UniProtKB/TrEMBL annotation:
Main location: membrane
Name under which the protein is recorded: ABC transporter permease
Pfam family, one: BPD_transp_2
Localization: Cell membrane
InterPro entries cross-referenced by the UniProt entry: ABC_transp_permease
Organism field: Clostridium hominis
Amino acid sequence: MAENKESILKRITQYRNFGLLVGMVILIVLGLIITPAMFKVDSIISMLRNNSIYAILSIGMMFVLLTGGIDLSVGSILALTGVITSLLMSNNPGVPAIVWVLVSLIIGALCGFVNGFLIGKLNMIPMISTLGTMYAFRGLAFLVSGGNWLFPHLFTSGYTWYAEGNFLGIYNITWIAIILFALAAIFLAITRPGRRIYAIGTSSESSKISGINEGNVKILAYTLCGTLSGLAGMLYTANHAISFYGMAEGFEMQAIAICILGGVSIVGGKGRIDGVVISTVMMGFISYFISLLPGLSVWQDAIQGGIIIIAVAINIITLKMADKRALKERGALI
């Protein structure tokens, strides 16, 4: 019995996101003590809804980070797509809303392909190229919108249904994020393109020797990231029933933070979708928790940053301990 308990404990501590889970538990305990109101069912459902956009962006960002790249343009792609789809929707209210979902996917994919081509084929530095497209896409959003805003009365019920509708008490936008997490997990775990995304991030040279076309894989990763950012743009405007060219500024940093907090390596090759799921929920809890504390909302960014640093530090220590144990076990077998 004692050996079984030790085995279970060992498996738990060897879990690569154990540190993140510990941080999550600590946060939940603090929340229950200080602000128990945040754990009402309606509050949790609302929190998940408000963080679903970050979840979708984080999935796309994970694909890019796994290749060893980065995409600073996801917020601008969101804004450009949201502006275009909402304008088309308001001018053509009789068109089924599913059409605008497809349009958002196409626009996002085109933007992502541009990033992927610049990086995968022209060998531009990811940070520099996506910084450029970040401003370019944001500028296009301004030109398309003319600097004007769209307000709630211009949004059709079919369009907003993708965010406001619900199934089993959970908003549709949250269900979409959950489905995308599941699809991303399957894609990365069992498909050849998914494994190749990991491969080029782990070792560019080894992947080339194996016959993997690194440029094409990067184009795929950035196109997927753009596609998800485009979908997020349509869902963002549907969720808030508002559209303007300046929306989602800084969202790229939030998506990057969620991925890093979830154990995705900034240099590529390492990261799991379950870690991103946990970190997305954790970031949502952190934001909501701080917003409920009187006088601390102005310190939200600073507190959030500090918690992220602590959680990442715990995760790094946990990963190092797991690696050491793995090395010892290999040594024992040899």
